Amino acid sequence: MPPALLDRDLVYVTGKGGVGKTTVAASLGLAAAARGRRTIVCEVAEQSAMSRLFAHVGTDREERLADDLYALTVDPQAALEEWLGKQVGGAALKVLIRSQAFQYFVAAAPGAKELITIAKVWELAQGRRWSRGNETYDLVVVDAPASGHGLAMLRTPQTFGEIARVGPIQRQAHKIRDMLADPERTGYVAVALAEEMPVNETLQLQDQLVDAVGLDLDAVVVNGLYPERLKAAELERVRDLAGRDGLAGPTSSAVRAALATEERARAQRVHVRRLRREARAPVLTLPHRFGARMDLEAHRELGERLARGFDRLRPAGVG
User: Fold this and answer.
1) What single-letter DSSP state applies at residue 316?
2) Considering the entire predicted model, what is its pTM?
C-alpha cells in the first residue's frame, strides 16, 4: 500500500478554478511542517499567495516562511536557465540565454513552459538539486493550475519524451514522467465546492488523471461546507416565519438569513453525497468560515483537520 499522503515526496493539488486550491495547498503545507516534515509549497501560476499569507513578498527564490515550511513561485524562465546551467553551463549557457531565436522557440513551443515548470517541481523533490547548495525537502505540495491546465502540465513529460526520442530532454522528461506515475512518491488531491459544476468537473478529473499519469486521485476535498444547524421540525418553523406577513426589520432579516443558510447547507449535502457515491477516492470536507479572514491560524486549523482525515483513511498499523 502507498504511504500516507503527507509521507510522500510530492502532493499535486488541483481542481476547478475558484474552489480554494490555494487554501488546501497552504493548509497541507502547514500540517506537514507541523509534523516535522521539511515542506515547500510550490505555486505555479505566479500567485505568491503563500508569501502574502505570511506577510512576505513573493519571489522566485525558495523562501522560508516558518519552521520547516518554505514557498516558491516558479518562474519558468529562471527554471529554464537553471536547468540549462546543469546541462551545458559556461559560455554556451550565456549564448543560449541571449539568443532571440532560442527565446522565441521556448515561448512559442506548445507545452514548453509547462514542461519547464513541472521539471522544476520534480527537481524540488530530489535529494540532489540542480544547483549546489540548494535546500532539500521531505515534501513538495504543488498549488497546481485549474484542472484542465493542471492535467496538460502533467502530460507534457510524456509528450516531450516522445518528441525528443534521445538526449537530455528525453532523459529529463522520462524521469519526471516516472515520478508523477509512482504512487509511492506522488499523490493527487482534487478540490471542489459542493455545487453541480465543480462536482461534475471533479468526477471528470478522476478519469482524466488516470489517462494522464496512470494514477487515481488519493482524495477529494470539498471546501466551504455550511453547517446544518436546524432539525427538520425547526426548519419548517423557520420557513413558516419567513412566509408570514408583517414580519419586518431585524427579525425578518435574521429569519431569512437563517433560512437561506440552512437551505444552502442542505443543498450542499446533496452534492457531497453524489461525490461520495461516484468518486473513487475518499471525500473529505472543510467547513465554511463565516466572516473570518483566512489568516495563518485558520489555515493551520484546516490543515490539521485534513491531516486527521487522511490518517483515518489508513487501516490501523499501516504507514
Assistant:
1) T
2) 0.86
